[in-house]
Amino acid sequence: MQLSDCKVEIVRRHNKVVYRDGDRVIKVFNASKPAQDVFNEALNCARIQEAGVRVPRILEVSQVEDGSWALANEYIPSRTLSGIMHDAAGDELKAYMDQFVELQLEIQAIPAPILLNNQKRKLIGMISVVRELDPTARYDLQMRADGMRSGRTICHGDFNPSNVLIPEDGGKPYVCDWTHVSRGVPEADAAMTYLELSLEQPDWAELYLDAYSVKADIPKQKIRYWLPVLAAAELSRGRHLYDEFLLGWINAAADFE
Amino acid sequence: MVRKPIAIDSVDALAKRMQQMRAAQEVFATFSQEQVDEIFYRAALAANKARIPLAKMAVEETGMGLVEDKVIKNHYASEYIYNAYRETRTCGVIEEDKAFGMTKIAEPIGIVAAVIPTTNPTSTAIFKCLICLKTRNAIIISPHPRAKACTIEAARIVRDAAEAAGCPEGIIDWIPQPSLELTNELMHNSDIILATGGPGMVRSAYSSGKPALGVGPGNTPVIIDESADVKLAVNSIIHSKTFDYGMICASEQSVTVVGDALYKKVKDEFERRGCYFLKGDEVKKVGNTVIINGSVNAKIVGQPAYKIAQMAGVEVPKNTKILIGEVSSVDPSEPFAHEKLSPVLGMYRAKTFEDALEKAKRLVADGGFGHTSSLYIDTAEREKIAAHAEAMKTCRILINTPSSQGGIGDLYNFKLTPSLTLGCGSWGGNSVCGNVGVMNLLNFKYVAERRENMLWLRTPEKLFFKKDCMPVALRELKDVYGRKRCFIVTDTFLYKSGFTKQIEGILDEMGIMHASFWEVTPDPTLQCAEQGLRQMQAFDPDCIIALGGGSAMDCAKIMWMMYEHPEARFEDMAVDFMDIRKRVYTFPELGSKAFFVAIPTSSGTGSEVTPFAIITDAETGVKWPIADYQLLPNMAIVDTANMMTQPKGLTSASGVDVLTHALEAFVSMMASDYTDGMALRAMKLVFDYLERAYDTPGDVEARDHMANASCLAGMAFANAFLGVNHSMAHKLGAWHHIPHGWANAVILTRVMRYNSAEVPTRMGTFPQYDHPKTLARYAEAARFCGVTGADDAEVFERFIAKIEALLEYVGVKKTIAEYGVDEQYFLDNLDEMSEQAFNDQCTGANPRYPLISEIRELYLDAYYGRPASSYED
Predict the structure, then answer these.
(1) Which CATH number is A78-253 given?
(2) Could you give the CA distance from residue B492 to residue B521 in angstroms, rounded to a whole number?
(3) What fold characterizes domain A8-74?
(4) pLDDT band at residue B4 using 50, 70 and 90 as cut-offs
């Protein structure tokens, strides 16, 4: 793949640079990014799209000149929902949150492709590599995760307003970044969203939990039950920024009689 | 041959170790009760002796709980469990009931996978090891990583003592370094899982695909009723809540007090005994320290109150027993509404007892479904206790009892099984609801030997017979039974012919009042019975006299039933049964208002001695066959004088009916020595006297014997029941109005041939009927009636010929067609008729279980007079 001279850098992260290049969005990963992760993201994206979710279409996976892998999607002229929400307050903010929850429920209502990763196995695997936790805490967390039923819901795994695109033409929203998608139970997916919002936007988190619980008709305690497990899984991503906060939540995970 | 155990440090090692354990367990499974009891005894003693060091180890390793309290738990796990099962038989034959032929054999299950929690790491290990030893099972323990050293030590002590007492090596083992992978592998490969722990682990156990005895968390709510003894209540709660710093799953989590006055008293008593009521924002501080995102903070579990307060930044006296938060919400968002596994308690105020029940219900539903609930109350308040028991969806409901000590059984109630694994039923997602014990770790074999049914002989209290006996017999109504008002039920013909006159005269002589209902029609209807009933009710008799043939007697029986029990429903009474003793409907008792006397005027139905009656609802056309020994008359008077004027047709039809009764009762699966005697004598009398009675109506001797034959056959089939011949005849009567006796006779020899098959498609289901033997039974009857022959088959053929000759003599036609049944109408209704005959109540006792298609063939053969088919399968 060759990027044109018209490419514009959108964002730069520790493992990738994202460009807009005409009508394409191109993620160029670091040379160290394993090919299987890139193909997996593309595969997830294709599966989700074919299941009927509105996602920016996947166009190409190939190497750029230096041998790094890159992934090209269609470009959607849009704003992120988080950007829009940051400008809103009060009832307006609440209305956007409702829209956000409804979008999540809409996706959760679509039957998940059977070949998606299994949420429970994914979480157990993630927890097993968290070195910040002692083996006893990992055991408790894995036991709790192991008790999770095998759901049949598309769980985005990173569903937050910055991954929701609101098209400028007023069309229906798109959801991007399907790296962490799995097939699992909706309350755990909601817990993940709640966890992410709690880290970055705590006031949105409570707003979200209220709205999700009511609209999905799932008691909050069923969502909260998974927080220690997800906090541990979040630790495995090695971002370290919120380690202390997450460890505080994990303390509640011991599986007592 | 048991090899030296290998360390379990990988999935492969676990698989190998389990193989070894299986071999050891197979040896263990052969041990006798005495050997097992010795091992159980030695192991319990060893665990008991180690109770203090084990308690110390547990507290040191887990950093939770109190040594002295853990000593009690270890003591309990060894002593109480031993005591509970010392006499229990768990090996081989454990119960034997020779009369019923039932033997119960106990066998071990195999390898038990045991998951042990951190909260009771040594006592639960002792408990599980002991009950496995008692049941000859092997056990592998997956300890909790936080408590592995003490759990393993407890298991080791039990194992060493067991092995020293002769237990095969390696029956008890453990995973030294537990991991999710090993625990799951263990559960998958075990034979049963004994899972004590949190909901995650228990769910894991249930999803392993192996039977699991999983138990779960509690959220015990306490209600203190206004009638409660406050001192007892508060101090019991403190005693229980502080035990091992609140780590028992049955421990109280919240107290709801009924009424403001009591609330103050309760609060004062808590304070007086060293509990601390959190003030202002202290409630929130402690709440948010104890519960994080709806789950218990691991750091506070099993910690003293003072330490928890410190962690929450709340200043309390060092010796504080319990931290109490006064809260109002029972919603899960309220931390004090949760299970707290520490000396932290929520306290609620309820306006009424009902309000308290509602709160407790919610607390149970949100955190402790199926576990334990508790109530302090004056035990005279039975209604409240019952209302509480009904409202609580918990498997243990404790009254005036500290719940930690009370829930595990045998400490505050001596009927509750002692156990450290408390089942929470389906409410808690568990397979067990009681306290788990040795019975949950055994497979039982029930060896059931064939037994024959008990049979019976039921007859009227009194039966009088011989010509002209009636006037003498009726005297008993006054002399013996002291009856004052007699109601006579009969038909118009008999009434107009003056049959009742003689009875009325005798009653008048005795000064017994009487009234009569004489409008019984043939095939009596419900409407007819209701009409008679109104007269009967108006007269209010203490005696009913039924005079006539089957119709009058049946109708009178029904009127008797309605007179005594106006509330009884025919549709319930008429439901078919497989066994009259096991029928769903229980008949009300008859005879409390009126004594029932039956006087037959024909020699056929035997209704005077049978428990049957048939009534037709004229509005719907439905025939209700009612059968129950309650309908048995109290007295039967068989006076031949009443039968001398029977017309020829009636003599023939009722006579061949008697023969059919006798033959069917004799080959019925329920035939007995008692009914056989009556049936054989009855059929012989028919052969000897029916032709004479038919030819010479005034032949008293013949009439006398026919009357007796009818009554004898009646008693035989009242107890042995009938068969498919009657089932089919009933439908010929219903559809084609062939008189009942002839309807029986026209198919009789064909049905006999059908029943005598040595290879029937299906035989009847009754333990006494052990092989197809109806041919031999017919031959036995034939020989009794004077038929001879070289073998059963020949005797049977000659018997058939003898019966056919008799039938011909008394004018029975040879085919159904000859009774004027239209061919097309017959064929159109044949399927329906066959199915209904199959479904007739009489079919049940038939020695051959008929197929509907076979009944259909029999009907067709009998319609056209086709040569008899071979009815062998």
Answers:
(1) 3.90.1200.10
(2) 8
(3) Phosphorylase Kinase; domain 1 (3.30.200)
(4) low
